[in-house]
Amino acid sequence: VQMQAYGGGLVQAGGSLRLSCTDSRGHAFERHFVGWFRQAPGKDRDLVAVMKWNTPVTRYGDSVKGRFIISGDNARNTVYLQMSNLKPKDSAVYYCAADPPNGPWDTYPIFVRPEEYNYWGQGTQVTVSS
Questions:
Q1: For residue range 116-125, what is the model confidence (pLDDT) as tens digits?
Q2: CA atoms of 9 and 108, how far apart (whole Å)
Q3: How far, CA to CA in Å, does 85 sit from each of 11, 67, 97, 105, 125?
Q4: Residue 45, SS3?
Q5: 37-87 per-position pLDDT tens digit
Q6: CA–CA distances in Å: residue 43 to residues 55, 82, 119, 123
Q7: Spatial separation of the C-alpha atoms in residues 58 and 44, rounded to whole Å
Q8: Which residues contact 82 (CB under 8 A, 6 or more apart)?
Q9: Average pLDDT, whole number, for the chain?
Q10: Three-state DSSP class for 76?
Q11: Which of 21, 30, 59, 60 gets the highest tally of CB atoms within 10 A of its CB?
């Protein structure tokens, strides 16, 4: 798995952006947990949103609930993060990540901590101006 993220940029508060991430080597996300984390300068890498690929199972960080939506396109093998009503505190480098579980797919709890993911994209900067 080699992740590649796209779509960051500069946006005014209240605006929207959509991030995209795919596996640049064409490997499928089937039976993977896939999602987004972010890291602001001097802070830890935090959960934004993750999903259990090709299922309705998702998890969101508390600060983005109701504003961000994670989705996946199985045909394009791409995960998206639609960000709306952006705030200056959302400014960070956003990273996509993926990893398969180490146990049964149907019952394995979704990974929500960054240390559970082994495959990472290079990061894309999101800056929200006030």
A1: 999 999 999 9
A2: 35
A3: 10, 6, 24, 34, 17
A4: coil
A5: 999 999 999 999 999 999 999 999 999 999 999 999 999 999 999 999 999
A6: 31, 23, 21, 15
A7: 21
A8: 16, 18, 68, 69, 70, 71
A9: 95
A10: coil
A11: 21
The amino acid at 98:
A
Q: How far apart are CA 80 and CA 72, in angstroms?
A: 6
In the chain, the amino acid numbered 16 is: S
**Cα–Cα distance measured from residue 74 to residue 109, given in angstroms and rounded to the nearest whole number:** 21
Cα separations (Å) of 12 from 83, 84, 87? 12, 11, 8
The CB density around residue 124, as the number of other CB atoms within 10 Å, is: 23
- Residue 4 has a CB neighbour count (10 Å cut-off) of 15
Backbone dihedral angles phi then psi of residue 129, each to the nearest 5 degrees: -90, 150
Structure tokens at 87: 């705030």
Beta-carbon count within 10 A of 105 CB: 14
Residue with tokens 């690929």: 53
